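Backbone-to-sequence.
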């Protein structure tokens, strides 16, 4: 393979400084925090497991002398200083929270690949003009406290932190209270402001799809992220006795919710299989076999890469739910509105160039999953590096990736960060 363009020597030296065993060992150490049967991880945002993962990450950062700071939504920043104290940093990172039945790589890989890149720069004696920051974004998954990508959304200025303090998890715990406990657990971290300038952002992540593996490719230079809308749909009726209340007189919230979901499925039916529609969360009250449900809350997640299509689908959710509410009432609340993101051509090109220089087979591809890079792309030149994920399985305990591919992604990341941090 012929490299597209040459790279700085110190960028390639940093890539060579990546230690595959150290990265793999750290992924294994992190996977112990919140470990669940089947090799999975359950580490919800702002939970005791999240706090423990933060402490472990900080212990590795302190051992290297990196500066540590935290902002008001709990995003954790580790800084390797540059030679110009006034230069905006180049950032990398991802998230440490997981899905309830999550795997060992989604998110945490991007954080630890970032840390590995910093240590690889140390090992190679590389100095950069700009600082390089590794960020662990808070609550990327949104599995406990919807919506997802909350930390990067707040950091980038898209929403204020106050917009999320009253969000409650399935046990009724307020996000504001869980956040306070999480922040109290890292008192040594300096305070980081929101919306500080960022020179560029690159996030490393497992692909979560089958393309790279199926084509025997090691690196994906990600071109962008498809659009996405999230809603909470709250249906209200009346509880009643399952044996005595005539069906014709019931205000059955679950029956109405099922009708709404069927209509939404029909709306999003797509013979090309590009549209993604998911109802992944449902809370039924009082959740008893012999009581007609009085309340149902369900989530809607709809995604599409085309801006006009995702807009049309998003605008149809509320009217369609109203139309199928029957005798019940319904409140539809939008919780996330992400238009498709297009990454920076220069950053995409740089990732491809780094892969080429490192003799790693690569391709360009879009991301079906959302990432914190979605929000960073609104404030700075942004790109992502994907590495293969076994059978494309993700948000599943069986999620898997090879040590060699994970190290390759960290090498590309280290090289690209050194390039960007000297511009
Ligand atoms: C992030 O995990 C997403 O839902 O795409
Ligand atoms: Mn992720
Ligand atoms: Mn995820």
């Amino acid at each position: 393979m012929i490299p597209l363009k040459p790279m700085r020597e110190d960028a390639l030296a940093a890539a060579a400084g990546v230690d595959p065993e150290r990265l793999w060992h750290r992924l294994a150490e992190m996977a112990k925090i919140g470990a669940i049967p089947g090799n999975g991880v359950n580490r919800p945002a702002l939970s005791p497991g999240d706090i423990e993962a933060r402490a472990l990450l900080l212990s590795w950062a302190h051992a290297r002398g990196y500066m540590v700071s935290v902002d008001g939504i709990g995003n954790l920043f580790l800084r390797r200083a540059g030679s110009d104290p006034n230069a905006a940093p180049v950032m990398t990172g991802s998230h440490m929270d997981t899905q309830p039945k999550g795997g060992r790589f989604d998110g945490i890989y991007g954080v630890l690949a970032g840390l590995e890149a910093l240590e690889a720069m140390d090992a190679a004696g590389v100095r950069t003009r700009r600082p390089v920051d590794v960020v662990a974004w808070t609550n990327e998954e949104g599995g406990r406290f919807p919506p997802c990508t909350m930390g990067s959304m707040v950091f980038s200025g898209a929403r204020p932190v106050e917009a999320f303090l009253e969000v409650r998890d399935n046990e009724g715990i307020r996000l504001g209270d869980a956040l306070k406990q999480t922040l109290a657990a890292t008192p040594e971290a300096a305070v980081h402001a929101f919306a500080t300038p960022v020179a560029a952002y690159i996030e490393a992540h497992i692909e979560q799809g089958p393309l790279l593996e199926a084509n025997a490719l090691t690196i994906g230079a990600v071109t962008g992220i498809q659009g996405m809308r999230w809603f909470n749909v709250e249906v209200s009726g009346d509880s009643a006795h399952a044996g005595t209340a005539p069906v014709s007189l019931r205000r059955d919230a679950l029956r109405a919710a099922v009708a709404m979901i069927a209509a939404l499925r029909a709306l999003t039916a797509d013979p090309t299989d590009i549209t993604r529609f998911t109802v992944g969360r449902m809370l039924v009250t009082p959740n008893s076999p012999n009581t007609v449900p009085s309340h149902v809350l369900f989530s809607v997640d709809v995604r599409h890469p085309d801006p006009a299509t995702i807009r049309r689908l998003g605008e149809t959710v509320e009217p369609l739910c109203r139309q199928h509410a029957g005798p019940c009432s319904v409140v539809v609340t939008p919780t996330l509105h992400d238009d498709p993101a297009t990454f920076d051509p220069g950053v995409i090109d740089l990732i491809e160039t780094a892969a080429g220089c490192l003799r790693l087979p690569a391709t360009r591809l879009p991301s079906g999953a959302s990432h914190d890079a979605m929000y960073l792309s609104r404030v700075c030149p942004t790109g992502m590096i994907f590495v293969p994920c076994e059978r494309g399985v993700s948000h599943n305990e069986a999620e898997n990736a090879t040590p060699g591919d994970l190290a390759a992604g960290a090498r590309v990341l280290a090289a690209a960060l050194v390039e960007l941090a000297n511009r």
